[in-house]
Amino acid sequence: MGLILYRIFLFLYACGVEIASVFNHKARLWYQGRKKIFKKLNKAFKGNEAPVIWFHCASLGEFEQGRPLLEALKEHHPDHKILLSFFSPSGYEIHKNYAGADWVFYLPLDSHYHARRWLSITKPKLVIFVKYEFWYFYLKAIHDRKIPLILISALFRKDQPFFKWYGSLLHRKMLFFYRHLFVQDENSVHLLKSIQIQNVTRTGDTRVDRVLSVRDRWVPIDGVDEFCATFPVIVAGSTWPEDDNELRHYANSHPEIRFIIAPHEIDQARLDDCLELYPGSILYSTYIQAPGSDAHILIIDNIGKLKRLYHYATICFVGGGFGKSGIHNTLEAAVYGKPVVFGPIYEHFKETVEMEQAGAAFPVDNVLELEATFNELLEDHQQYQKACQAASDFMEQSAGATAKILSYIDKNLISQIL
Fold it and tell me: Which of 114, 128, 172, 350 could form a disulfide with 108 if both were Cys (CB 3.0 to 4.6 A apart)?
């Protein structure tokens, strides 16, 4: 019954995407990107004799999570080739030319036929899925071919289908296809062992290693030093309209503070909305061509800079917490040893909960709490320094997941992938 329902879900998903592709840009990219995918695969892999390691990521966030291990394997095993696949356009379109992989492709929608054909062409010697990817036919086909398959940086919660009474119909079967599961916390270990999954190790989150690497290779961003000057700076990253509605009063009424706003989406309508919400603002692309503007709010209108922008912050604000989906990546901010503020939707983000417990992060429920928190951190030097130190300590203590997973691969799987 579980497999029947799964097939129905996949059919309806495919139909929905095809219909949505007519009027939705992301759906169109998803649909068009998979056209003639196997013809492209055959051409790309023709004549390849090198062993292949296949990394699969759902989207951009999972790629950043898996990237430290991907790059470590590339460095340790340069004779291997890396196949990187994405499910979502937000990952593929940004990293389709990623130099760390030998091939980058969309993953065709799950099916027995697609899985069998994908593996027949690519012939991976090791498969690594990142965090939340569970596609039954792909996982079963990998397992049936006895290809080592691991899951990294996974995080499990009691409310997931794996741990429900109906989980044995399909979801738990997928977990047994993995050779080993590397999870972020002890709760995940206990949950998996409660359903007889014993091949599990707690290693932490590989994203920590990624953001530490970004921090250590930080380079300045043109014009931002001049904009910040000697003022206190609040960097608000990955903001949605709900976040901006809470931020705008404080930003507009404090010209003595420099604000850098990096919206999560940067289409023209969203940028126009930001310029209206923040009257004292200027787009980064405009500012960089005419520095010296008296604007105290900088709206970032390009992608790829946020990880470096947090370096300039006195306080970091991470967006998403005032919306339904929850906050974005708080690790990217905390890695610079700065306090992190965010909205009330964050309870499913383990690292952020732990940051709050450590004294490095500050959730706020509304605009009044947001303003009070900003003021306290800016005015109470002792409290501010304590939060900064807590952020630095948290990041350093949470590092090392990549090295642990790489050690397992070298000790237990190396003979199968060489």
Answer: 114
pTM above threshold 0.85: yes
245-280 pLDDT tens trace: 999 999 999 999 999 999 999 999 999 999 999 998
Q: Residue 162 carries which DSSP code?
A: G
Q: Evaluate whether residue 211 is within a structural domain.
A: no
Same domain, 96 and 245: no
What is the biggest distance separating any 2 CA atoms in the chain, rounded to whole angstroms? 66
How far apart are alpha carbons 289 and 369 in whole angstroms? 37
Residues 154 and 287 in one domain: no
Cα 157 to Cα 185: distance, rounded to the nearest angstrom: 10
The structure tokens listed for 86 are: 């994405």
DSSP 274-333: HHHH-TTEEEHHHHHHS-----SEEE--SSS-HHHHGGG-SEEEETTTTSSS----SHHH
DSSP secondary structure of 107-141: PPPP-HHHHHHHHHHH-EEEEEEESS---HHHHHH
298, with CB counted inside 10 A (0-12, 13-18, 19+), is: buried
- Is pLDDT above 90 for 133? no
Assess whether 251 and 314 both reside in one domain.
Answer: yes
Cβ atoms of residues 362 and 373 within 8 Å: yes
Give 394: exposed, middle or buried? Use CB within 10 Å, 0-12, 13-18, 19+.
buried
Q: Which residues of 311-325 are buried (b: 16+ CB within 10 A; e: fewer)?
A: bbbbbbbbbbbbbee
